[in-house]
Write a structure and sequence with these properties.
heterodimer; A: alpha/beta; Rossmann fold; Arc Repressor Mutant, subunit A; 2 domains; five-stranded parallel beta sheet; two-stranded antiparallel sheet; B: alpha+beta; Jelly Rolls; Heat Shock Protein 90; 3 domains; six-stranded antiparallel beta sheet; 16% strand
C-alpha cells in the first residue's frame, strides 16, 4: 500500500482499469485523469489485463466482470494470488449483490458504479488506497441476511459468514439501514475511524481461500449459472 | 462428613426397624383376630340333645370316657374301638322322627342304634377326607327307637396319618339337629367346593395366559398350584387298602407340599425377585412322597408323609411370609402388604390345624388351613386378573396417547410443509429477481451506462440526455431494490435509497442529514409488499427532487421515527425537511397554480401516500418545506383509491 499523508499519496497511484465497453472505459479513465494523483493503464480484455499486470502489479485494479475472453472473477483471483497488496474493485452497472459478492469472495474489496459521478469515482479510489473499503447498503444487507439464513437454502454464491463477529454483523446492520459510520460508531461505542477497518476485515473474512481449487470450481459453476 | 454418613446410615437403619416393627405389629393383630375367630365354635344343635359320656370298648377293655375323645391309635380298621352311649327318648315324642348327628370325627364311623346299623361314613367319599370336617347325620328308623332308654353304638375307624377323634354326639328330633348339620355342610363342604371351582376356573384362565405369555412364568406356576389343588379337592380318596388307585392317591396326599412349593415360587416371581439357585429343591419332598406312593406300600407312604409333608409346608409358609415381609418393608407397596397379611392368615390357620392334630390344642379338631389357602389362591387369582385388566387399560391409554402423538406429528409436518412452501415461494421470487436483474444488468443497464458515457463526451448537448439516462438507471435500481426480500423492514429499503439520494445530491452540492429519532427507526411491517416499497421510495424521491429543483435548498434532512400509539406498537413517520424558499400552498393544501410542475409532483405524492394507506402532510414557508409521511399501522393488501 502506498504511503499516505494528509490523504494525498506521495506518488501517483498506479491503476489498472479493465473494461470492454469503450465509452465506459473512456469515462472511467477521464474520471481518474488527474495526472499527479493517478497513473492509469487500461485494458479491454482479460488477455490485455494479464499482460498489463506486469511484474509488480498495480496498486489498484478496477475490473468489469463480463469480458469478451473470460470472466473478471478469474482476473481478480489471479491478481489476489500474485499481488496480495493490490486493492481490487469491481466495476458494476447496478451494484447488484450477485456479481459484487462473487468478486468479494475472490478478493475484491468493493465496487464502483459505471454511471457514478467522476468526482465520486476518484474519491472512492483514493479512499480505497487509504484503507477505506467502501460498502453499500444493499451489499451489507445481502451479507447480514445471509448470516441469518440456514445453510443449504440460499442461492449461489455460497457465502460463508460464520467467521464474522457479532460486532461486525452489527456494523453491517447499521450500514444496511442507512446509518452513517458516525452513527454506527456512536451506537456501538466505537471510534468513527475504526469502522472502515472493520469493513475491510469483513471483506477479508468473506474471501474464499482461492488455493482450494474445488471451492473455486464451485464458485465458477455458480457464476456460470447466474 | 463421616459423621453425616454415619448419621444417614443409622437413620436408615432406624427407619428400617421402625417399618419392620410396624409390619410385625400389623401381622400380630391379624394373628390375634384369627385366633379370636377360630375360637368361635362351629354351628351346634341345642345342648339338651348332646351326649358327652360314652363307654369305650377296645382291645384294652372297657372304660368310661368323656366326649370329645381323642383315640390315640393311628390305625383301627381291623380292630375298631366301640363307643356305647345311652340316650332317653321322652314318651310323648314317638311321632317325631329322630336323628343322630355327628359333627366331627376322624376318620370313619359306623353308627348303630339298639344294635341296628344306620350309618357307615366310609361309604361317603367326602366323609373319608379328614381335611374336610365333614359332619354326618342319620335318621333313626322309627321302629328301632324305644320310649325311654336307647343304646347308641359308634364304631370308630382310624387310618393314618391322623389319630382317632370323636366329637360330642347329638341325638334328638331331626328338626332340631338338621339346621346345625346344614350350616356345617355349607361351611365345610359347599364353600370348599365353591372355592375349588373358582380355583379350577382360574387355573384354566391363568394357564391360557401363561401359554400365550411364556415370558411370565408366574401365571403358569400359579395355574399349576391351582390345578393340583382342584384335582385334590374333586378326586375322592377312598380309605387305605381298598383302592386300586393307591398310587394316584399318593399324589393327592403329596398335594400340600407340592402346592406350597408352587406358591413359594410364585411369590418370588410375582414380586420380581431373583429365585435362589436351589429353588427347585423345594419340590423334592413332595415328589419323594409321590414316588413312594407309586412304588412303596401305603403304610410307608403315610409314614413318609408325616415325616416330610408338614415340615415342607411349614417351611414354605414361613419362607413365603419372610420374603413378602421383606418386600413389603422395603417397597412399602399395598400389594406386598396385602399378600403378606393373607399369608399370615393362612399360617395362623395352619398352625391352629397342626396344634389340633398334635392334640396340643384341645378343641373340636376343625381343620381350616385348606379352606383359608383356597381363599388365598382365589384372592391372588382375582388380583392377577385385576392387574391384567389394568394392563389392558394401560395399553388402551397408550394407544390413545400414540394416536395423539401421531396427530401432533402430522400437524407439525403440515406446518413445516406450509413453511417449506413459503420458503420455496420466497426462493422462487429471489431467483426470479436474480434472473431479471441479470437481464437488466446485461441489457438495459449496459445500454444506459453507455448512454451516460456517450452523453458526457458530447459536451453540453449531452448533459440532459445523460441526466435522463441516469434517472432511468436510478429508477431501475429502485425497482430492483424494492423487489428484494426485506422481511418488512422498511429501514433496509431506505438504506439503499439513502445511498442513491446522497450520490444524486453530491453534484448539486446539497448535504443530506439522516436521522433516526428513535433507536430502531421505523417499525417492522411483516405485511410489507414490494409495491408498497416502490410507492414510498418514489414519493420520497419526488420530495427530494422538489427540494433540489424547485426550492433551491442547501441541506435536506431525513428523519425516521416510530410514533408510539395509544395502543399497539405505534406507526412509523418519515419526515423530509429542506431549507429552501418553499412554495405557496393553496388553502386545500395543494401547491398554488404558479408552480404547476411542483403541483403535479405534489398531487402524485398524495396519490402514492393514499394508495398505501399513509398520510401525507405538507408544510411550506419561505424558511423551508417539510414533508411528513405517517405510515399506516398496517399496510393494506390492495391499493387504496386516492381520497
Amino acid at each position: 500500500m502506498a504511503p499516505v499523508s494528509d490523504g494525498q499519496p506521495t506518488s501517483a497511484i498506479r491503476v489498472l482499469l479493465v473494461e470492454d465497453d469503450a465509452p465506459t472505459r473512456w469515462r472511467l479513465h477521464d474520471a481518474l485523469a488527474a495526472p499527479a494523483t493517478f497513473a492509469v493503464t487500461t485494458a479491454a480484455t482479460l488477455a490485455e489485463a494479464r499482460a498489463a499486470l506486469g511484474e509488480t502489479g498495480p496498486q489498484v485494479l478496477l475490473t468489469d466482470l463480463q469480458l469478451p475472453d473470460g470472466h473478471g472473477v478469474e482476473l481478480i483471483r489471479e491478481t489476489r494470488q500474485r499481488f496480495p497488496q493490490t486493492e481490487i474493485m469491481v466495476i458494476s452497472i447496478l451494484g447488484d449483490e450477485e456479481s459484487v459478492i462473487s468478486a468479494i469472495m475472490v478478493g475484491a474489496t468493493g465496487y464502483i458504479l459505471k454511471d457514478a459521478f467522476p468526482t465520486d469515482i476518484a474519491a472512492t479510489v483514493r479512499d480505497l488506497v487509504a484503507g477505506h473499503s467502501p460498502i453499500s447498503a444493499s451489499i451489507a444487507r445481502f451479507i447480514v441476511r445471509r448470516t441469518q439464513a440456514q445453510p443449504g437454502r440460499s442461492p449461489q454464491p455460497a457465502l460463508n459468514t460464520t467467521r464474522l463477529t457479532p460486532r461486525e454483523i452489527d456494523i453491517l446492520w447499521g450500514i444496511a439501514k442507512g446509518f452513517s459510520y458516525a452513527d454506527i460508531a456512536a451506537h456501538l461505542g466505537l471510534s468513527r475511524q475504526t469502522v472502515p477497518g472493520h469493513i475491510k476485515s469483513i471483506y477479508r473474512k468473506l474471501e474464499v481461500n482461492t488455493r482450494g481449487e474445488a471451492v473455486f470450481e464451485a464458485l465458477q459453476q455458480g457464476l456460470i449459472k447466474l | 462428613m463421616t459423621t453425616e454418613v454415619a448419621d444417614e446410615a443409622s437413620s436408615t437403619a432406624w427407619d428400617w426397624i421402625y417399618r419392620l416393627s410396624g409390619y410385625v405389629l400389623m401381622q400380630a393383630v391379624i394373628v390375634v383376630i384369627c385366633a379370636l375367630l377360630l375360637r368361635q365354635s362351629p354351628p351346634e344343635p341345642p345342648a339338651r340333645y348332646r351326649l358327652t359320656e360314652a363307654a369305650l370298648v377296645d382291645a384294652t377293655g372297657e372304660r368310661v370316657v368323656g366326649l370329645p375323645h381323642h383315640y390315640p391309635s393311628r390305625f383301627t380298621l381291623n380292630d375298631p374301638p366301640l363307643y356305647h352311649l345311652r340316650f332317653e327318648r321322652p314318651a310323648g315324642e314317638a311321632d317325631q322322627s329322630w336323628s343322630v348327628f355327628l359333627p366331627r370325627f376322624t376318620n370313619g364311623v359306623e353308627v348303630a342304634v339298639n344294635g341296628a346299623v344306620i350309618l357307615d361314613s366310609r361309604r361317603d367319599p367326602e366323609a373319608n377326607r379328614p381335611d374336610r370336617n365333614t359332619p354326618q347325620i342319620a335318621a333313626i328308623p322309627a321302629p328301632l327307637l324305644r320310649d325311654g332308654a336307647n343304646l347308641l353304638t359308634v364304631r370308630l375307624f382310624v387310618w393314618e396319618p391322623l389319630t382317632g377323634f370323636l366329637d360330642r354326639l347329638y341325638v334328638g328330633p331331626d328338626d332340631d339337629l338338621r339346621p346345625a348339620y346344614n350350616r356345617r355342610t355349607l361351611l365345610f363342604l359347599t364353600l370348599s367346593v365353591v372355592f375349588s371351582s373358582w380355583q379350577a376356573i382360574l387355573a384354566v384362565i391363568l394357564g391360557i395366559m401363561w401359554l400365550k405369555r411364556r415370558h411370565e412364568p408366574a401365571y403358569g406356576i400359579l395355574a399349576a398350584a391351582m390345578a393340583i389343588g382342584t384335582v385334590q379337592a374333586f378326586v375322592s380318596t377312598p380309605p387305605v387298602g381298598q383302592s386300586l388307585y393307591a398310587g394316584l392317591n399318593a399324589l393327592f396326599i403329596a398335594s400340600a407340599p407340592l402346592e406350597s412349593a408352587f406358591v413359594l415360587v410364585f411369590v418370588f416371581l410375582f414380586l420380581g425377585l431373583k429365585l435362589p439357585r436351589h429353588a427347585a429343591a423345594i419340590f423334592i419332598p413332595g415328589l419323594l412322597i409321590v414316588a413312594i406312593g407309586l412304588y412303596g406300600n401305603p403304610h410307608l407312604v403315610r409314614r413318609s408323609y408325616l415325616l416330610l409333608g408338614p415340615p415342607t409346608v411349614g417351611f414354605c409358609l414361613v419362607t413365603t411370609a419372610i420374603v413378602i415381609a421383606r418386600t413389603a418393608i422395603s417397597r412399602r407397596d399395598i400389594v406386598s402388604l396385602f399378600l403378606g397379611s393373607a399369608v399370615t392368615v393362612v399360617m395362623s390357620c395352619w398352625i391352629h390345624d397342626m396344634l389340633s392334630v398334635l392334640n396340643i390344642l384341645s378343641d373340636r379338631r376343625i381343620f381350616i388351613a385348606r379352606l383359608s389357602y383356597s381363599a388365598l389362591l382365589v384372592a391372588i387369582g382375582a388380583g392377577l386378573t385385576w392387574r391384567f385388566a389394568r394392563a389392558l387399560n394401560e395399553v388402551d391409554s397408550f394407544a390413545t396417547r400414540l394416536v395423539g402423538l401421531v396427530r401432533e406429528a402430522e400437524d407439525k409436518l403440515r406446518e413445516s410443509f406450509a413453511r417449506e412452501e413459503e420458503r420455496t415461494r420466497a426462493a422462487a421470487l429471489a431467483s426470479e429477481r436474480t434472473r431479471l436483474m441479470r437481464d437488466l444488468h446485461d441489457g438495459l443497464g449496459g445500454q444506459l451506462v453507455s448512454i451516460v458515457a456517450l452523453s458526457e463526451r458530447s459536451g453540453r448537448d449531452g448533459a440532459q440526455i445523460g441526466e435522463a439516462a441516469r434517472g432511468a438507471l436510478r429508477d431501475l435500481r429502485l425497482v430492483i431494490d424494492a423487489m428484494d426480500d426485506i422481511d418488512g423492514d422498511l429501514m433496509l429499503a431506505l438504506g439503499s435509497w439513502r445511498e442513491r439520494i446522497a450520490a444524486q445530491l453530491r453534484p448539486h452540492g446539497l448535504a443530506l442529514d439522516w436521522r433516526a429519532l428513535t433507536p430502531e427507526g421505523l417499525p417492522v411491517h411483516p405485511e410489507l409488499r414490494p409495491w408498497h416499497v416502490i410507492q414510498i421510495l418514489r414519493l420520497l424521491d419526488e420530495a427530494v427532487t422538489n427540494a433540489v429543483k424547485h426550492a433551491g435548498a442547501r441541506r435536506i434532512t431525513v428523519s425516521l421515527e416510530t410514533i408510539a400509539g395509544a395502543e399497539g406498537p405505534g406507526h412509523g413517520r418519515i419526515t423530509i425537511e429542506d431549507d429552501g424558499h418553499g412554495f405557496a400552498l393553496s388553502p386545500d393544501g395543494e401547491a398554488a397554480a404558479s408552480a404547476p410542475k411542483a403541483a403535479r409532483g405534489l398531487s402524485n405524492m398524495r396519490k402514492r401516500a393514499a394508495s398505501c394507506g399513509a398520510r401525507l402532510e405538507l408544510a411550506s414557508s419561505p424558511a423551508g418545506t417539510r414533508v411528513r409521511l405517517d405510515l399506516p399501522a398496517r399496510f393494506p393488501a390492495t391499493e387504496q383509491a386516492a381520497r
